[in-house]
Write a structure and sequence with these properties.
The protein has about 280 residues and is mainly beta. It is built from six helices and 19 strands.
């Protein structure tokens, strides 16, 4: 099942995507928030009568918001793709590199990315996002971790490298500006996505392909990451884990950092496409 939220910012309504049809389910589900997952998640939607919902063609939807309501936490993993580790000349981590991102960075898949004042090093990072489906702590193993995953989503970990790397302290400073985590267009439930074969990931800027990889390049798998994080964090329903980015970012290359007017297009197989325009603050 594909879950998405439609409508203007702050007034999004929960919906389900079937083919190219968007079913507004706001009469049956309040929103895709923590209580949605706590009350059984997608099981609430499986037997929903089509006749009781409003149907819209996907092309006629004015705006798609992030597919989950603001989570308690956005947890990010650094240097988790072998090709990215190689391009920046870093050592392969023995354990996952973990940092946090402010939850209010979430925006929709086609919303503008706002470049902060005096920002000179704004970068992009196409990522596979994991949405936690149930409260999880001290999970026993990866199998139990898989059962804790509510869905998969396309994420973009926008980063200002100057604040992240040149200003001292923790990476969170370069990660938490407004609009710095476009999410969606939709969440795909685990029963619809086979992660074993790997998912193609791409990102272009102004039509130039910059990231072109696959989730098979991951160092630590999503199930391992969820298990690992649960050993020292309580993962709440609706929390997001950004699982890292593949090669092709600006950092460590001669490419141009993002500028006003740049158009970012990102995609992951089966998780949809983002189209983002950069504008000034």
């Amino acid at each position: 099942m594909k879950l998405l939220r439609i409508g203007s910012s702050g007034a999004e309504r929960p919906a389900v995507l079937i083919g190219r049809e968007v079913l507004d389910v706001s009469s049956s589900v309040q929103d895709y928030d923590a209580s949605f997952w706590e009350q059984g998640g997608v099981d609430q939607l499986r037997d929903l009568p089509r006749a009781s919902t409003t149907t819209i063609d996907l092309n006629q939807v004015d705006r798609i918001g992030p597919p989950v309501v603001r989570p308690q936490k956005i947890i990010c993993i650094g240097l988790n793709y072998r090709d990215h580790i190689a391009e920046v000349g870093a050592e392969t981590p023995a354990e996952p590199i973990v940092f946090m991102k402010a939850p209010n960075t979430l925006v929709g898949p086609n919303d503008d990315v706002i470049l902060p004042p005096n920002a000179l090093k704004v970068d992009y990072e196409v990522e596979l996002g994991v949405v936690i489906g149930k409260r999880s702590q001290y999970l026993k193993d990866e199998e139990e971790a898989l059962r804790a995953i509510g869905g998969w989503v396309l994420s973009n970990d926008i980063s200002e490298r100057g604040w992240q790397l040149d200003r001292g302290g923790q990476w969170v400073k370069g990660k938490s500006f407004e609009t710095f985590n476009p999410l969606g267009p939709w969440l795909v439930t685990p029963d619809e996505l086979n992660m074993e074969t790997g998912l193609a990931m791409k990102l272009s800027v102004n039509g130039e392909l910059r990231q072109n990889s696959t989730t098979r390049e991951m160092l630590f798998s999503p199930s391992f990451l969820v298990w690992y994080l649960s050993q020292f964090l309580v993962l709440e329903p609706g929390d997001i884990v950004n699982t890292g980015t593949p090669a092709g970012v600006v950092l460590g290359s001669s490419r141009q950092y993002l500028r006003v007017g740049d158009v970012i297009e990102a995609s992951i197989d089966q998780l949809g496409v983002q189209r983002l325009v950069c504008r000034g603050a």
